[in-house]
Amino acid sequence: MLCDFTPACRALLFWRRREAMRGERAVKVSARCVVVMGGGAFPPTLRGGLHRVVCCDARFEKGPCDDDDDLGLGLRPDAKPCGSRRDPAPCVYGGKPRSWKMTSVAKPEIGANGTGKPVANGKIANGHGGGAPVVRTPSTEAPPSVGGQGGVNNNGSGGKVTLVIHKYETPPGAEKQHVVQTEDLDRYVAAMKESGGFKEQLATLKTGQLKPWTVAQKAENKHKNRYADLLPYDDTRVILHPLKNDPSSDYINANYISGYHKPKAYICTQGPVEKTVSDFWRLIWQEEVCKFIMAANLVEEGKRKVERYWPETCSKYGDIMVTLVSEEAFVDYTIRTFKVHKSGSPSKRVVKQFHYTAWPDHGVPAHPLSLVEMVEMAKAHAPSSKAPLLLHCRSLFNPSSSFTVLASAAQGTIVLLEAALAMARAEKRVDVMGLLYKLRQQRVNLVETLEQYEFVHEALLERLFGEPTRQPQDKLLPYFNRIKQDKPGTKNTDLELQYEKLKQLSPPLPPEKCKFALTNENRLKNRSMEILPDDDGRPILGAGASSVYINAVYTNGYASRRTYIVTQYPLIITVEDFWQLVYDTGSQTIVLLNDVDAKDETCPIFWPQTGSMHHRHLRIDHVSTDVVTGGVLQRKFKLRNTAKSPKSRLLKQFHLQGWHKGDVTPPSVDLPGSFPGQGGALAAEVPAPKPHHRRLLVSVRQVFGKCSP
């Protein structure tokens, strides 16, 4: 039997009933790529040992294919068949086309440890429940496309890989599993995203209330809940030590969550409301929490999402005094350190808050790098502590939910990620779906949306296979020199591999993300139609400009957002817009990264070399031109809006010399103790932007005859 097992074109077989009606040669799966043992009483389309396989569209939805099929099996041909049944198409992962042979599997054997789990090729198969697994053996060593409910594992036979598919429907209360070897995780994630497998997995898990939460619904506790549909289950709720003469003070909207083989590894709670701020600090003190993660902003979309529960300097919450010791801001998160002391206690404790500020109002972060980095920093703090890691976030409105309209996005994502990471490192395999099944038994609706579920897998890949690039300042230059060296056994350096990864993380924007740049009015303002600004990240010019559009984008700095503006070298028709951009954004520093040819009309000199120039209401006066270290020119200008104020703003322009038109990089000039090249000299001269201070504007260089970023 031959079949193309690419995500875009696969054999798709549906079993319409939970149990096999005849024999033990078939298994109920909700799979994108399924193989069934040949022979037996199969419908006409399958007789003859399954030598004919029909390719079905990967987006095909569940449904009966053949009402005359008394066994409940059906095949539907794709509108675009995958070609010859005898010549399968190449694997989506590259390499030779694969032919797949059927391997008969006997009834499940009892494992040596007496578990009673199915055994495949001498190994205990993944999953629970009855039914013999179906084994597909590829004729080459290429990795299989992933489909169905099962895991990819190496059977130790000549390096070949087997994919074991198990019956997913399990007895009531049984554990649900979907195990994948970590070495296959990257290919598995790519295949599942393309085929819609993650959506199918998530749909099988129940949402909404799964257990009683009677304590949370008591009249005396209702005001302590932010939402009526996001309550703690009775069996896993955190019980506070009650205050004197107040028996209901033992309640807080929080649950213990077990991690991978670690009971009560986490506490998931709601963001404090005004009446529960003191309860929140009681929780931290009682559970001896030394670090906690906040994944919310106090105000989002103009609405209060979380009550501010920490002080500007120091405050007392009930009988607990909290003092802010330090605050360190990064672009996507802030780390605060508190000293916490309870009245009557001889001890004082240090507690760190890791506040992730980049979780969007809707959806998930664009990439997991900064979240992964922050969680690693949180784990590195007080690693010997046995106390739970506390997490809270704000709740989101989720109109697609079938039961509840609330979802705690970030905390569930982080907890599931950490549990999956622990399993992967301990067992070299991971069961994200099974772990999520367990988490939802402990707190309602953890990881509710497809975006969140896929984000966990992407973050898991980053945690398992991503190389740390954060380096101390004194080790940065040696690190840079090391990653420039050829990597043994490959044709690439680590630096080149990092660059390739960056390109994967930042694919080209689709046209719908750049609508303003593509309007007829704005097309002529772009130097290249391949380099356009994202509608969500571009500056918008204010009153007085010829239009609101300019080819420019904001970029983040180390400790703050939108610290820099990157723009193309001005065209003749956009010089006025460039100066409007400088004025509107409050920029005081301009960096120019290319030489200017006075004969090149496409790249005009846009500043006054002497005297002054005017662009509508803006006046630019030349002050001075000086040569600084490493062939960098520094020019000073005064910028004034003649229609508004007599006051002028002092601007500095740093102009890198020697980067000629068509050169990919600037000329190399080694500077002692710095990075090579004139870029190092430029970086040494340009002042770093101050926090909350607008802004440093970079006019980009010419590459291959074009001015482009």
TrEMBL record:
<comment type="similarity">
    <text>Belongs to the protein-tyrosine phosphatase family.</text>
</comment>
<dbReference type="Pfam" id="PF00102">
    <property type="entry name" value="Y_phosphatase"/>
</dbReference>
<dbReference type="GO" id="GO:0008045">
    <property type="term" value="P:motor neuron axon guidance"/>
</dbReference>
<keyword id="KW-0904">Protein phosphatase</keyword>
<feature type="domain" description="Tyrosine-protein phosphatase">
    <location>
        <begin position="198"/>
        <end position="463"/>
    </location>
</feature>
<dbReference type="InterPro" id="IPR003595">
    <property type="entry name" value="Tyr_Pase_cat"/>
</dbReference>
<dbReference type="InterPro" id="IPR050348">
    <property type="entry name" value="Protein-Tyr_Phosphatase"/>
</dbReference>
<protein>
    <recommendedName>
        <fullName>protein-tyrosine-phosphatase</fullName>
        <ecNumber>3.1.3.48</ecNumber>
    </recommendedName>
</protein>
<feature type="domain" description="Tyrosine-protein phosphatase">
    <location>
        <begin position="495"/>
        <end position="671"/>
    </location>
</feature>
<feature type="domain" description="Tyrosine specific protein phosphatases">
    <location>
        <begin position="369"/>
        <end position="454"/>
    </location>
</feature>
<dbReference type="InterPro" id="IPR000242">
    <property type="entry name" value="PTP_cat"/>
</dbReference>
<dbReference type="InterPro" id="IPR000387">
    <property type="entry name" value="Tyr_Pase_dom"/>
</dbReference>
<keyword id="KW-0378">Hydrolase</keyword>
<dbReference type="GO" id="GO:0004725">
    <property type="term" value="F:protein tyrosine phosphatase activity"/>
</dbReference>
<dbReference type="InterPro" id="IPR029021">
    <property type="entry name" value="Prot-tyrosine_phosphatase-like"/>
</dbReference>
